[in-house]
Design goal:
Distance between the termini: 24 Å
Shape: elongated
Radius of gyration: 20 Å
Structural class: alpha/beta
Helix content: 10-25%
Largest sheet: 5 strands, mixed
Number of strands: 7
Strand order of the largest sheet: 3-4-1-2-7
């Protein structure tokens, strides 16, 4: 199913919704179409471009989120789906200080790892395993989700997702589309 990026009235990314939901927002005059996919939704009387990027016609205040939920999807997104020990494709998560040795299940103790490195490290401390981290784990800041979990970013989304430093900004995924039905 195709997805569309929804921007706030200020052009800040809000979420990603199914393309059909984005089309309904446009048809209800709650959003304007900024970019289409080239595919067409057809009805008996009209043909409409499938939305890829839409901008809401009203401002939605986003509540401050005190913390980002710690889950596999978010860990993989933070680490770019790469093993933090060898750089290969990550398939597992690993606790730097094993939980059996008192390590917490927290953002600064959990990293993405490939099966080989996860099996090699086992239940050992990092210094005992002879392995090194490519990058220290950090707590994500702001509204984030695993945009990387969707696969690749569509090219027409990039101008809205890039920060001044050239890195992709993460936004929220809306599963049902109900939150934008104001």
């Amino acid at each position: 199913m195709s997805r569309a990026l929804v921007l706030n009235a200020t052009y800040e990314p809000l979420c990603i919704v199914p393309a059909r939901r984005a089309l309904l927002l446009v048809l209800q005059a709650k959003a304007e179409l900024l970019s289409g996919t080239g595919r067409v939704f057809r009805s008996a009387r009209s043909a409409l471009d499938e939305p890829s990027v839409v901008r809401l016609s009203y401002y939605v205040k986003v509540p401050h989120q005190a913390h980002v939920a710690l889950n596999r999807r978010a860990i993989f997104a933070r680490d770019g789906h790469r093993c933090q020990y060898c750089g290969a494709q990550a398939e597992n998560i690993d606790h730097i200080i094993p939980r059996s040795k008192g390590g917490p299940h927290s953002w600064d103790n959990v990293v993405a790892a490939c099966r080989r490195c996860n099996a090699r490290k086992k239940d050992h401390m990092l210094e005992d395993s002879g392995m090194k981290l490519h990058r220290s784990p950090t707590v994500p800041r702001g509204r984030q989700w695993a945009l990387a979990a969707l696969g690749s970013v569509q090219p027409d989304w990039e101008p809205y997702l890039l920060l001044p430093g050239g890195t992709a900004q993460f936004v929220g995924v809306e599963a049902s589309g109900e939150a934008l039905s104001a």
